[in-house]
Design goal:
The protein is an alpha/beta fold. The protein folds into 2 domains: about 150 residues, Rossmann fold, CATH 3.40.50; about 170 residues, Rossmann fold (3-Layer(aba) Sandwich). About 40% of the residues lie in helices and about 15% in strands. It contains 13 helices and 11 strands. The strands form 3 sheets. Strands 9-8-7-10-11 form a 5-stranded parallel sheet. Strands 2-1-5-6 form a 4-stranded parallel sheet, sandwiched between helices. Strands 3-4 form a two-stranded parallel sheet. Helix 1 crosses helix 6, helix 1 packs across helix 13 and helix 2 crosses helix 13. The longest helix is centred in the C-terminal third of the chain and has 20 residues. It is globular and about 55 Å long. The chain binds phosphoric acid mono(formamide)ester (CP). It is an enzyme of class 2 (transferase). One of its GO terms (molecular function) is amino acid binding. Pathway: Amino-acid biosynthesis; L-arginine biosynthesis. It catalyses: N(2)-acetyl-L-ornithine + carbamoyl phosphate = N(2)-acetyl-L-citrulline + phosphate + H(+). Keywords: Amino-acid biosynthesis, Arginine biosynthesis, Cytoplasm, Transferase.
């Protein structure tokens, strides 16, 4: 683990003390949002995919600390970028990441990157080439705004749980990360991240998914295993809804595509359609220990979770989304101070 990482690519690269310091600073800035810690600084927010929360919270967070944010969407309002070395660039890409990252580093103090998997070949997608390309060539800190993990969401989630339980010590809480239905195969990023931060916080984590094919990539299962050995929590994989929900303090829902079907999604569709009943509903939540529910958003109501679950006072998804603003400000401050 790096003692003072240059970038914020994954929470796993940062020490527990660094994570705790960011969460504490975020909580402080939630009470006092306006400051000048980034006065005169700037950040480029590079979006290869759509966003509502991430874009808004980063732009406003920079503004509230005196910095300026520039949003770029390569292939839309900025030139398409090539990431592979040695490519004869006679396709759509007009410039190479080797120039893009270094040029942006001449202008701005930080670069945020959102780049989802292409959903064709997981072996390629799991290399996280876009984020790693920026991190390799940029001479300023790079922030992961969601690629194959979503570390900013992790921090917002952790802060929301700490607020809900009234303590920064989440050890001993039963935490269920449940797969839920969605008509399309989605990114595993938030699931990877939820597993990472929940085990890091020492909770007793159950990964509930329809079949073994929906278990997450071995890298993130490995991080979770490493985390429980350090934090004293636990990790269980379950395909049984009732026992997984029983006594849960936290239910976190996310839908994702089964990794073995990357690039050949046709056969996965009938499998996922058989598990529509994984949708989070009142009956399942009644099995919990008066548990709290959350989701990273956006969420399709009555597909991933019912109206009653979303409108329940036990749902903290909106509070978690609000926390994105505060934790990202704390991350930008921490990186700018290095
Ligand atoms: N949760 C999240 O990252 O939301 P957006 O996709 O709207 O940014």
């Amino acid at each position: 683990m790096t003692s003072s990482p240059r970038h914020f690519l994954n929470t796993q690269d940062w020490s527990r003390a660094q994570i705790d310091a960011v969460l504490a600073d975020a909580a402080r800035m939630k009470r006092e949002p306006i400051g000048d810690a980034l006065k005169g600084r700037s950040i480029a927010l590079v979006f290869f995919n759509p966003s509502m929360r991430t874009r808004t919270s980063f732009e406003l967070g920079a503004f509230q600390l005196g910095a300026h944010a520039v949003v770029l969407q390569p292939g839309k309002d900025a030139w398409p970028i090539e990431f592979d070395l040695g490519t004869v660039m006679d396709g759509d890409a007009e410039e190479h990441i080797a120039e893009v990252a270094r040029v942006l580093s001449q202008y701005v103090d930080m670069i945020g990157v959102r780049a989802f998997p292409k959903f064709v070949d997981w072996a390629v997608d799991r290399e996280d080439r876009v984020l790693e390309g920026f991190a390799k060539y940029a001479t300023v800190p790079v922030i992961n705004m969601e690629t194959i993990t979503h570390p900013c969401q992790e921090l917002a989630h952790a802060l929301a749980l700490q607020e809900h339980f009234g303590t920064s010590d989440l050890r001993g809480k039963k935490y269920v990360l449940t797969w839920t239905y969605h008509p399309k195969p989605l990114n595993t990023a938030v699931a990877n991240s939820a597993l990472t931060i929940a085990t890091r916080m020492g909770m007793d984590v159950t990964l509930l998914c329809p079949t073994p094919e929906y278990v997450l990539d071995e890298r993130y299962m490995g991080w979770a295993g490493q985390n429980v050995s350090e934090s004293g929590g636990s990790l269980t994989v379950s395909h049984d809804i009732e026992s997984a929900y029983a006594g849960a303090d936290v239910v976190y829902a996310k839908s994702w595509g089964a990794l073995p079907y990357f690039g050949n999604w046709g056969p996965e569709k009938p499998i996922r359609d058989r598990y529509r009943h994984f949708m989070v509903d009142e009956t399942k939540m009644a099995l919990t220990n008066d548990g709290v529910f959350s989701h990273c958003l956006p969420l399709r109501r009555n597909v991933k979770a019912t109206d009653a679950v979303m409108d329940s006072p036990r749902c903290i998804a909106v509070q978690e989304a609000g926390n994105r603003l505060h934790v990202q400000k704390a991350v930008m401050k921490a990186l700018a101070a290095r």
